[in-house]
Amino acid sequence: MSIWWSLHLRREAASVPLARRLLLGTMETAGVDPDISYDLSLALSEACANAVEHAGDSVHGDSRGAYRVTAYLDGEKCRIEVADSGPGFPADSGDRGAHAVPEAPRRPVPVAAVPYDAEHGRGLSLIEELADHVTIGNKPGRGGAVVSFDKILKWRKDAPLMAV
Description:
- By secondary structure, the chain is α+β, with helices and mostly antiparallel strands.
- The protein has helices spanning 15-30, 34-54, 123-130; strands spanning 2-10, 66-74, 77-84, 133-138, 145-152.
- Helix 1 (15-30) packs antiparallel against helix 2 and helix 2 (34-54) runs antiparallel to helix 3.
- It is globular.
- The N and C termini lie close together (8 Å).
């Protein structure tokens, strides 16, 4: 079983729940375990909120005022990518290892540097906690940030589209 979809959304707060509801509906219809669906939808909400808040200023009709969400449910894994056309992540002096996009500037703030009770700056850390594998970096060439993450799926016993 393989399902994928891609959305091109305006950088507006109302786009975040739209993406989240589409993902939840897709996973519910496919028969994904509700706990896994919830984790992925929360991670997606954080990634979308970051694109809305941090992708830079936009002019009406300018593609920089948009971002893209792509979701793949393929076999036993779900992969989600959120990409914007903003300034991207600033270059950092540290190394994100397996979490970084190859040959791209890496995420500037290590997970441990964000206090657990901070009201801002926890989104990427939360995504890393909810997903099995996370890649965070900048798009090569054109600019913009890319956050992608995946998680192994669990299925309900009565899943109509369960992978075999």
